[in-house]
Structure formats: C-alpha cells, structure tokens
C-alpha cells in the first residue's frame, strides 16, 4: 500500500470542519479527487503533500506517518517522494527549462540523469535550454509536469491540471500523467472539478463540504 | 544547480535594479577607499618628506606657506632672507646642522632648487646614473623629472624664471645634467637640484645683462658643497632647513627667530598637523557623504529584495514544494544580499583606485604624483567586511519574510 489515509479532518479558521473520505492507493494506480469549487479538494491535496497539517487523522505513505514529520525532514521527504503539479505552472522565471528541473534535484538531494529523457517524453526536447519566459502556456504546463517527475517521486499530485484546457488537450495531459506515473511506478492523484477526466480514470472519491 | 547559482540567477534576472544598487554602494565605498588611500599615503609621504627637518627659517609670511614651499615644494616661497642673517643663526649653539635652499626657477614646471650636498644626504638619495654637481650650472635630476622630461646624464636645458611653468626663460646659461637619482618616492623625485651658486649666477646674469665673455668667468666660480656659501657681496637665500641640537631648541629657537630677527621660523610637524586639522572638515564631510551613499544603497538593496519577494512568493512556495527547507530559502535571500554587496565592495575599491589613478595622471608635477594608486591597504578588507554587513542587514527582513512564507496559502490562492 503506497498511500493510506484515515479519518482526515481539517478546519480553516472560522469555517466548518471538513471531513475527508479515506483514501487507499497502490503504486501505479490512479485516483481522482472530485468536488465543487470551494469544497476543500485542494485542502486535501495540501494535506497529502504535507503542505498543511491535518487537525485529525493520519496519512501513511509506505507505512510512514506523514503528519509526524516536521520542518526540514518533511520538506526533504516531500521533495524526494511527492511530485506536485500545480494549477498554474509557477516555473522559476530566471532559470531555463532544464535548470528548473535540476533545481528540484538539488533541493531534494537526488540525482537524476534521465531529465533529458523526461523532457523528450513530454515533447520538450527542443526547449531544454530555453528560458521559461519563452514558453507557451501548454509548454509551461508540461514543464511543470516534468518538474514533478524530476525526482522520480512515489506519488504524483496534480491540482486541476486540465481546468484551462480543451477536450483534446485534457485527454493528452491526463494520458501523459498516467503514462509517466506508470513508467516510474508512482501513484497518481488528480484533484479536479472537471467531469471530463472521469472518463479516463475510474477510481475516485468525492469531497463535499458538510 | 545550487543555491549560489540560483541567487545569482535571480540577481541577474533584474539587471537594472541590481546594477543600480551595486553602483550606489560602490560609489560610497569608492569615496571611502580614496580617503583611506590619501590619508595613509599622503600623511606617510608628508612625514617622510619632513623627516630630519626640525625647523624651517625663511622670510616672514604665512608659516604654512613657508613649510609647503620649502619642505614639500608645492606653494610659492614667502620671500628671501639675507645670507648673513642665516649664517648668524646657523652658528647658534641650539642648531645642529643647516641646509640652505635657493628657489626661484623651474624647468617645465619642475622646480630648480639651489642647495648643497647635505640636502641629498638628508633624503639618503642614491644615484641611478652620474654623480653630484661639482661646478656651477651642473644639476642632478630627481627620478620623476628625468623620466617625465626624458632627460639623462649629459643633457642640457634652459631654466625659466619663476617656480611655475610658463614664465620667461633664462637664455644665458644652459644647465648640464650630471646625475639622475634613483626613485625614492619622496619629494626629491620631482626636483632639479643644483648648487646655490648656480641659482645666484642665473639671476645675476639677468641683472647684469652681460654677454658670453662672462660665462668663462662663471666656470671658474667655486661652489659650496657643504655648509653655507660664503660671498663678499650681500647675498640672499630663500630658506634655511634646521636640525636641532637638543629638545631645548624646539622651545627656544623658534621664539628667538621670530622675535629677534627679520626672519620667520616654522615647524613642519606643527604646521602639517594644523593643515590636516583644516582639511579635516572637508574630509569628514566627504566621509559623511560616503556613509549617506552607503546607507541609501543599503535601503535600496533592502527595498529591491523586499519588492522582489512580493513577485517571488510563488517561486518561494514552489521551492519549498520541491524540497527546499525554510532555512535554505533564508540562505538564498541572504546570499543575494551578500553577493550584491560583495560586488559593490569590489567595484567600489576598483573605482576608488581608478579615480586616484586618474587624478594622479592629471596632476603631473604636484604632490599627488608621489602617491601610488594601486597599493592595496589592509583597511580595504574592512571595506569588504563593512559592505557585507550592509548586505546582511539589508536582507534581514526579506530573508525572514521568505522564511515565514506559508507554501500552502501561496500555492492554492491562485
């Protein structure tokens, strides 16, 4: 079992407590987290990524309790084991495409000589040394996916990766994420309100503001 | 990739803001560098030039002018004193030794100083080529004079009247170079030295307006190599440099000269410390300006870092998301501040030295020429340390802000 959560709950200041459904995910498996805007699905993603701490419940990754890690250890664990694709690419503007990926390697203290391969898989081989300022939106998003893959994580979290894409590109991105996750044997969790994605990934949980 | 490279990339990503801050800091530090260099070398030079000269006796006037004209050879002399009076004084029991100086001529802006061989001994000069003068109109050149005018032993030239360039030539007699001194880095480097008699004869020529027949007579004139020259007719010299026999002289001799004779006595040490006191106001104003510049650049760096943090909140959050610790972000911001100020410091020191070099190049014959613009002082290390401190201070708040950035909030706000 790659990921297992039990009885997670989180309260935003001045708001109702959100109770989350339990998640169980194996390596190589994909899972959707569905919900309306503001339902708390991003909150769940933050909890899974260790970016926020749950008020209740626990998250086990390969038997390790994520909520027990703190500070630098948590940062390093996240860097090494969890790849996150954010809603917006948020690339580091002063750096080139390959440098953005190398940065991920540096901070997680991992070495990866397959960075060029990843870029090639995502159709970015030509852009390897380009400044990220010269990329189109679609390219930038693929770079952000490449960055999430750069450390060969065990778990890939994607936050609304398709919200601004048309049907054709939605399919492409979902396929890309699934293919790459399979290739490195990682679990994939996609947070979305996009019903189109449901057609491609069958396993899902729903987050509802109670 | 590493933190250092990342900081560097962020700095060069905003070249104008970075450049402006580096430049501001550099200018402030350049002023400090120039002041340090000037203070160190000028004061050292001034003390060196005045070594062995306890008292200068000359015509009445400004004592500072007297010192500047006869010890450092910058200002105009106050006038002449009579040789007899000078002789009387040199026989005083408080006087250990005296060196007479006769000023009044120049060659291309370099002063021709009539004196005796004691003057060469006073500054412990050595000859690069040739030897000391032995006849009238023989001269010895300081190293800088020889180099700048391209003169060597055996060359001849005509002196001009007055001690600055551009006055009429004494066309009656050619000076002959008998020797060139080794560079010493002191005042002698930029002087043309000869016997007192040479200076006298040049001026007598002028007055008498006599022709060539006279010059043969000149050749046979005896010159004084040590001590004061003797003369049948009343003669004048410009100043007398005096060495005291004992500490008592320091108290009694100046008073004696100033009160009982038509001459004036001035102590180089006293006048120089008075001069530096006067200059002190200007120097502290410059220092103040430098500190204001450094302060502004510190604030500039702070604002630049702080503003860039606003744009970089996402970047910081992303860095955390890909595994960077809070501490690494803190380091990154500090590194940026430190890199910025480090380059500012290096640039400032270079600008300071370069500026001094420029001044010296502009100033061919002045006292500045003896300053070495590319000597590096230990104190300049402190400039670097000081600059780095500004960098650390300026990045304190931005770094702390980066440290506290909540990643979850930043990344999900979008």
Automatic annotation (TrEMBL), chain A:
ABC transporter domain segment(s): 3-209
GO molecular function, one term: transmembrane transporter activity
Keywords assigned by UniProt, alphabetized: ATP-binding, Nucleotide-binding
Gene3D superfamilies, alphabetized: P-loop containing nucleotide triphosphate hydrolases (3.40.50.300)
InterPro entries tied to this protein: AAA+_ATPase, ABC_transporter-like_ATP-bd, ABC_transpr_LolD-like, P-loop_NTPase
Gene Ontology terms: cellular component: plasma membrane
Superkingdom assignment: Bacteria
Cited SMART domains: AAA
Pfam families, alphabetized: ABC_tran (PF00005)
Listed name of the protein: Putative ABC transport system ATP-binding protein
Protein's organism: Algoriphagus iocasae
UniProtKB/TrEMBL annotation, chain B:
Pfam families xrefs: FtsX, MacB_PCD
Localization per record: Cell membrane
InterPro entries attached to this UniProt entry: ABC-4/HrtB_transporter (IPR051125), ABC3_permease_C (IPR003838), MacB_PCD (IPR025857)
Transmembrane segments: 20-38, 288-309, 329-360, 381-403
Topology of the protein relative to the lipid bilayer: Multi-pass membrane protein
Protein name in the entry: Putative ABC transport system permease protein
Domain ABC3 transporter permease C-terminal: 289-405
Keywords assigned: Cell membrane, Membrane, Transmembrane, Transmembrane helix
Record-annotated MacB-like periplasmic core domain positions: 18-199
Predominant location category: membrane
GO cellular component terms attached to this protein's record: plasma membrane
